[in-house]
Amino acid sequence: MQIPLRLLLAVFLLASVPLQAAISQQVATAPEDDWIIATDFVLPETIPEEDIGNGVHYLLSDEQILVEQDRPTRYFQHYAELVVNQRGLEYSSQIQVQFDPVYQSLVFHKLQVIRGDVVLDKLDSANFKLMQREAELEGLIYNGQLTAHVILDDVRVGDIIDYSYTIEGDNPIYDGIFSSWIYTQWGVPLEKQSFRLLWRKDSPLHISAMNTQIEVSETGSPGAMEYAFEAIHSEPVQVNSESPSWFSPYGLILFSESADWSDVVNWSVPLYRRALSDRQGVGAIAEAIRASTEDRAQQVVEALVYVQQEIRYMGIETGANSHRPSAAYETLARRYGDCKDKAVLLIALLDELGVEAYPALVNTNGMRRERLLPPDANAFDHVIVAVELGDRLLWLDPTRQYQYGSIDEIPQADFGFALLVRPESSGLTEMDVDHSRSALKVHDVFDLSQGGTGTVTYTSTSEYSGERAEHLRNQIAISGLSDVQDSFGNFYQAFYPGIERVGNIEIESQPDSGVLTLSEQFKIAEFWDTQESENRFNASFYANLISTELAQPEQLNRNSPYALAFPTNIVQTIAIRLEEGKWQFDDDRHSIDNAFFHFEYQAHYDDATSTLTLSYLLEVKSDHVPAGEITAYLDARDEMLEYASYSIFTYIDPTLASSGSRAEDRFLSQVILALVGLYILVILYAIVSWRLDAKKEHPSDINLLYPVSLFKLWALSVATSGIYLCYWFYRNWKCIKAKENSAIMPVARGIFAPLWYYPLYRKLSAAHGTAGHAHPLPGRALMIVLAIFYLLYGVLANLVSYGITLSLLAPVAVLPLANYINRIGEPGNSVITQNSRWRPRHYLLTIFAIPFFLVSCAQELHLLPNGKAVAGSSLWNHDIQFMQRNGIVPADEDIVMFYSDAEFDIRRDGSGFTDTEVFSYWVNEGDDLEVRRAALSEVEEIKTRFAERWTGNTTFTIVTTDGTEFVLYASTEDRKDRLFDEKLRAQWRLANRR
């Protein structure tokens, strides 16, 4: 079917080439007509650059309309826009105006660039191009509209683009009935908006406004009225993301010649009556349907399915065809049509079957907003069919596909309100649709009967009905089963890493009921999370289809409602088969019911089959959450997420369940104490050994700078955390003091070495200039850079997260000075050899420094607790996964800050908070994990007690609204406890403002 369709579209596009040539003179240039009143733009004192879009600030939007009794309407537009930046150059240097050449003509009056006091006229040199863009072609709609496109040359930042034009002509389908919508607010600032409408008809014009306080002035007399308004500096309207499609907060004024909805009905009834009168060939199809079934409801279904499947969708909506439906026999003969055409054919077919049906005009964005507006034919963009079947009014859409089942199971269209096209209609009809049959039922089975080391098999059976089945069939038809299968696999992978599909998806379609059943099978080789340090296997299960259906808004502080996925009816059951006789669970249940959704959870363990069954139900009850009720929605969602995952664990070795981990902790503590004690002894030995060697030093050595091999300088600097560098500086300043007989303090200059780095360079540089050594020092610029680096090292080494990394690099700054001192010694000088010799104390210091260095590196990389509060983003994924699987944090929440007081494993102890929750956990004396968590919105008070000593921990007592309390901890190191407190309280305040 695709090939003939594309060929047909190609024929239309090729046919439009001579059409463009024939209508090219419609883009004419001429002075503005006499009826137009010139309007000047306003230059702002300041440009609101933070609010503008596309680098353009709009100075003027002037619209003037002339409506006369016996002449096509003229629409005059005048715009002025200021180019603010480079993006604005790209945007404003191209002007595009769209019109329909079938019934409209376009005349440009002005096209100029204003640069300061200079006006550059671009109209005469403008090279207008007519393009047939067909933006809706992807949706199989051809409207024949043209776009007049011109590219301006020599446009610069700061220029004002000033242009005006008139479009003359009305779509003849409206029979001269006038209506026009004027927005009084944009998404960007507008300095000046001017509107003027000249009404030269005897019929009254009806005016209505929404979301605006602007008043329209009315002057003149009947048949010669003028309506106008002007607005200065219109503020932009910001709409939150994820708002319902029907929501629009923009100011709007509607001018309409229709007094009520019956006027719109009277206009539309003749259009459909003519199309329904010609129905050759329809009777034969009706006869075939009647022969296949005598059931009236089933006849309606077969008529609907015939139009859906045998008549492909395509719209040729040029000119009056935008609203005039084709005759039923034409649509049947060519086997394609748009929504109007397919609706007419279905109505004709149902009429032949003796079923009453009518066209129903709807808006695909929903009729919530349009219901508040005055009657207007342009309020609708789609046509469906209203069918009277017994005492029911059904809403059927013949443009949809893949609808199966009985009349009760076929999903009905629901756009809020519809206008029935029949003579007796006088207002909108509410579309009361039952969505309960559009559902998803999922049954997951996990086989864990092999225990902690066995491969887990996971099967999932999903039953789609109603709209869910229709959408999935459509998705498979568009993307292919392979892509759908990959998409499902990626979804499961997010919850169960390492999952592997076994075979392909098996699909079972039930045309009689419309139900579509998918069966999938997986294996997970490493499903259990092995916690050897805790002697545990952990496993978590997720009601993933439930938890992902209700998302958290990207923007929490809202002025717009938040759209929900409606209708939603999901039942998910998770059956977990476990080893016989080794498990025991308490039954559990919980339900949540509010204006937004209904949720149910139940857990039950069957001893006879060793099966734990988790049952979940979610029904979304509204298509949106009002902006003022976001906090209530988020609180209810958080409560739901607490029950949307379930974790279990078993011991690797049950005999060690109560003592293994603690015995290991005691052993590690003893090892640490032993290493610390030995390291202290090594330091004492090094000091004593050094003092004994110092006494053997020759008195003349005091007048010598301190040469030492560069490797020893670097290695001992790292091993002693920079102390050896201080000693090196001390020895050199001691030499300088002796030579100059000055009163400087070498010890102080050694301790504060970063401050005395550059002065040492100056001393060496001055000595080099007088002694004439053959090995010059590096240049001053390089030494200044190194001095700054070394000074920053001294300041930041204990303040930043990667102090160990800095300690590795710090000796690099000293190497140029050390290299110079080494090279200026006398040839054969034994001092450098003596100083570079590695003595036992040096080896011992280096050897015992290695484990502490490795531990420090592991702490900086967050492989081990580092003794201070950290950002949650710095935690490793396996640690976050542990917290998620043990119900400490929800699977879809990010940790903001975290602190662990454990020595080697943050799984033993931790405190922190996410965007919406606060938590604390620890392993108790029985080696069981205890967890305390609360939604921030349920926290009544946070009591912070800052540590009085730098070695202590700051405590945060969390008091919830039900009176329960638990404590969080954070160390004072780097004052991160203050940051922890600040961010915790900020999230708490934010949660209580939602």
Q: Could you outline the blueprint of secondary structure elements for this entry?
A:
Blueprint: H1 2-23, E1 27-29, E2 56-68, E3 74-83, H2 86-92, E4 94-99, E5 105-115, E6 118-121, E7 129-131, E8 141-142, E9 146-151, E10 160-168, E11 179-183, E12 190-200, E13 206-210, E14 217-221, E15 224-234, E16 252-256, H3 261-277, H4 282-292, H5 296-310, E17 312-313, E18 315-316, H6 328-334, E19 336-337, H7 339-352, E20 356-362, E21 382-389, E22 392-396, E23 417-420, E24 429-430, E25 439-447, E26 456-465, H8 467-479, H9 481-495, E27 499-501, E28 506-510, E29 515-524, E30 529-531, E31 536-542, H10 544-547, E32 562-563, E33 568-577, E34 588-593, E35 597-606, E36 611-620, E37 624-625, H11 630-643, E38 645-651, H12 660-695, H13 710-719, H14 723-740, H15 746-751, H16 757-771, H17 780-796, H18 803-823, H19 830-836, H20 840-860, E39 870-871, H21 877-885, E40 895-899, E41 909-914, E42 917-923, E43 929-935, E44 939-945, E45 953-960, E46 965-971, H22 976-993
Parallel strand pairs: 1-5, 2-12, 8-18, 17-19, 25-33
Antiparallel strand pairs: 2-3, 3-10, 4-9, 5-6, 5-10, 7-9, 11-16, 12-15, 13-16, 14-15, 20-21, 20-23, 21-22, 23-24, 25-26, 26-29, 27-29, 28-29, 30-31, 31-38, 32-37, 33-36, 34-35, 35-36, 39-40, 40-41, 41-42, 42-43, 44-45, 45-46
